[in-house]
């Protein structure tokens, strides 16, 4: 018996994560090198970012002094420290922790799409920093979504809330005793 693959399986790669989007990766690299004011080197996306040097330079442009020491070359461990310093700096800059990739996602190429999402999150957060006047990456963030309700709408909502909580006609769990005990009948 053979099983058909789900229709959207083409979006997934062997690791089970979302497939890479080369257009987004290109947009991220263009954004980074525009901010750095440097020509973009030739090479693959993950190879350009792998050692964390470019990422540390990027966060230092966005928030000067964020990464004090950048290892330009060294052992794998020393280069991974660049990525960890970048991660700590962007967390401090305002990128939510759940949007920050793991060091192995980039260095060991385990989840490159997560790296891209993280850099989009960084690009989005730059909008909250008025001192940053460079290009932004990704969609514009919403500023406010205020809503006003009349007293009548608020009262109607309170009635709905009580109905949603359910009505149990006086039932309770008072006779169940401690958890794990059998029920004697």
TrEMBL record:
InterPro entries: Calponin-like, Calponin/LIMCH1, Calponin_repeat, CH_dom, CH_dom_sf, SM22_calponin. GO terms for molecular function: actin filament binding; calmodulin binding. One of its GO terms (biological process) is actomyosin structure organization. The keyword Mitochondrion does not apply. Keywords: Actin-binding, Calmodulin-binding, Repeat. Residues 22-126 form the Calponin-homology (CH) domain. It comes from the Eukaryota. One of its GO terms (cellular component) is actin cytoskeleton. PANTHER family: CALPONIN, GH21596P. Belongs to the calponin family. Thin filament-associated protein that is implicated in the regulation and modulation of smooth muscle contraction. It is capable of binding to actin, calmodulin and tropomyosin. The interaction of calponin with actin inhibits the actomyosin Mg-ATPase activity. This is Calponin. It comes from Euphydryas editha (Edith's checkerspot).
